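REQUEST ID: PR-0412
SUBMITTED BY: lab tech R.K.
PRIORITY: routine
TASK: structure prediction, single protein chain
INPUT:
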Amino acid sequence: MHPDRFHLTLTSEGRPVAHGWWGSEAIARGMLPIWIGKWGELPDARVTLTDEETGTVLTTWPEEA
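STATUS: complete
OUTPUT:
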């Protein structure tokens, strides 16, 4: 397991605000509601979880319409 495999990115108005990396997808997914609660009211906030090993975007918030 790579310690930096699962990458959370927070952007506001298209600019990076915060990054976090975890080796466990479950832990990274558990951080989503924390980040959303803490920073979700930033202008045009978006949180993205990516599997850096495969390049796959696992989830985004808010969800794409």
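NOTES: The first helix runs from residue 25 to 39.
REVIEWED BY: pending
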